[in-house]
Structures are given as C-alpha cells and as structure tokens.
Design a protein that fits this description.
By secondary structure, this protein is α/β, with parallel strands linked by helices. The chain folds into 2 domains: 2-79; 89-253, 3-Layer(aba) Sandwich (Rossmann fold). It contains 9 helices and 7 strands. It has helices at residues 2-13, 32-45, 49-58, 60-71, 74-86, 91-101, 135-144, 181-191, 222-235; strands at residues 109-113, 127-132, 149-152, 165-171, 192-203, 240-243, 247-253. The protein has a 7-stranded mixed beta sheet with strand order 3-2-1-4-5-7-6, with helices on both faces. Helix 8 links the parallel strand 4 and strand 5 (192-203). The longest helix has 14 residues, at 32-45. The radius of gyration is 18 Å and the shape is globular.
C-alpha cells in the first residue's frame, strides 16, 4: 500500500504543472499507464504538447524512482520469491523456446527491457543486454550475472544504438507506471534489426487467481493488455500467444 500511496502522491502533487482544464486526481481503480496515456492524449489533442514534454522531463524521473524503490524493497523480494516458487515452469527455458521457434540462433543479440536484476534471462544462451532504470539494481545484476551487459535506461529511452538487436524482451513492464505501450514499441522498433522478434508478457495471477487470456482482461491491467495486443497485431506479422502459470506471453516478428 505504501507504494500505491506514494505513486498516487507523485501524480496528484505534480498536476499543478498542467493546465487547469487537464488536471485530474489519481484514480486507484485505474492503471497508472492508462491515466497517463489519457492525460497525454488530451494534451496533444488540444495542442498543448509543451506540457507533455514538461511532464516527461519533470515527473517521469520521479515515477522511475518510485518504481525502483518498490523493486528493490524487502517486500518485493519476498513477493518475487513467492511467485518463483509457484511459477510451475522455467522462464529461461520458455523464453529460449520462443526465440528458437522464431528462427534465432545462439549468436543472436537479445535485449531485456525492464529486466530488474536479470533473473528471468540469466540462463538463456544468447548475447544478453539488460535495461533497467535503476543504477542500483543494474549494479546488483552485474554482480550476480557478470556475463550480462546491464545498461541504465527506460522503455521509451533505452539509450542503445539503433538496429542493434535481433530480439526484444519485456516481461511485466508494459503495464507498470512510467511505461506507455506505444512509446515502448517505437523504441523497440528503433533498436531492433529488420524483422526483429518481440516477447511481451503480462501477469496472469491476480489476488491468487490463475487466469486465461480472456480472464486476464478483468482487472485494471485489462486496458493495457488490450492496447498492447492491438499494437502488436498492427506491428507483427502474427501474434503468437502462450498462457503460462504466472504470465500471458505475446510474441512474434516485426513486419
């Protein structure tokens, strides 16, 4: 709850930088990404682009700090341990199978955006780069997995060279605060080679319930999942799906 209250405060306390007619109170019943997307769309529609750029330069860093604090907290470490213990499948193996099924070999360069400490990709046999907003978490990842290249960056600005990767992975990241799916896919297209592969996942389990693709769209992640699905259907030749024990995966090859 502390994290949610803190994130709510980041939203509410920074509304003053926006025009009065655009300001809104944070809704705990809606996903942060959707609220930020809707705010952005209103600003752009009304010709107020400068306020969106102001928000991104002043508020996005605070959102990333909030997220990094959550993911390095003791509570989150316990949560991750619980999720891993009940996962029921090896994500390293699963991701490898996805990439191999898309025609990649072990010489492929793969980037994981929003990687945290890199546990989900630590044992896949590709040339890995992990991108994470927190310098502290990147340092932990480097210590745990010195053979992985960790870079400080965000989903909308990875700070990586263009057209340099064969595949892009982002697990449970396109639904967290500070990430908008259309910004993320634009950056993914920039850093991927021609017809690069993408793997995106969303959490299936919510309040102890194991869900299918249809039921994953029942809570406040639903609008983000639908939005991402629509984007990928436009950007990929074909969207492949896998309903795992903990996450729902969408993957395929860029057009």
């Amino acid at each position: 709850m502390h994290h949610n209250n803190s994130l709510e405060n980041v939203w509410n306390q920074n509304q003053e930088i926006l025009p009065v007619k655009i300001r809104s109170r944070y809704s705990t019943d809606a996903n942060f990404c959707i609220q930020e997307r809707n705010m952005r769309n209103r600003l752009l529609t009304e010709g107020l682009e400068q306020y969106w750029f102001l928000w991104k330069s002043l508020v996005r860093p605070k959102i990333h700090i909030n997220r990094s604090q959550k993911y390095s907290s003791d509570d989150f470490i316990v949560q991750r341990s619980q999720e891993y213990s009940r996962r029921g499948e090896n994500w390293n193996r699963l991701i490898t199978d996805f990439l191999l099924s898309e025609g990649l070999n072990n010489y492929a360069k793969v980037v994981d955006v929003g990687s945290n400490e890199g546990d989900e990709v630590a044992n896949i046999n590709f040339k890995m780069t992990c991108v994470e907003p927190s310098k502290h978490i990147c340092n932990i990842g480097r210590a745990k997995y010195p053979y992985i290249n960790f870079k400080v960056g965000s989903a909308d600005n990875t700070l990586l060279p263009k057209h340099s990767f064969d595949a892009y992975i982002s697990l449970r990241t396109w639904c967290v605060a500070g990430v908008l799916a259309d910004e993320a896919i634009t950056e993914a297209e920039r850093i991927l080679k021609s017809q690069g592969r993408l793997i995106i996942s969303f959490p299936l389990r919510y309040k102890g319930k194991l869900r299918s693709w249809d039921s994953v769209l029942e809570d406040k992640i639903a609008p983000v999942a639908r939005w991402t699905r629509d984007i990928l259907q436009e950007k990929l030749f074909h969207v492949n799906c896998h309903a795992g024990y903990e996450d729902f995966f969408m993957y395929g090859r860029l057009k």
